[in-house]
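Allow me, if you will, to draw on your knowledge of protein folds for a short while. I am sending you one protein, given as its amino acid sequence and as whole-number tokens for its backbone shapes. Kindly check, if you would, that the fold set down in the tokens agrees with what the sequence suggests. The record follows directly beneath this note:
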Amino acid sequence: MKKTLILLSLVVALCIIPFFIDHGGEFGGADGQAEAQIMEIAPDYTPWFESLYKPASGEIESLLFTLQGCLGTAVIFYILGYYRRTRKDHESKRS
């Protein structure tokens, strides 16, 4: 029980401590950095196409990105669970 409490407190500390450390960094994505590099290498570059939908703000863009990741994760774990259940059913029929 004591070992569990120590490990739990370490996990909580690892989750909370980064909020109090100021690294002075910015939250920037790879897209912005890639665009800056392209403009530095080839200033006359023009994109092949434009986005179909431009979110109104960065927060909405982050929300959509997170939802996309959640849906992808849900699909992957559904498939893994389906195959695991199918395998268990197949093994139980053999016995």
About this structure: The chain has a mean pLDDT of 87.
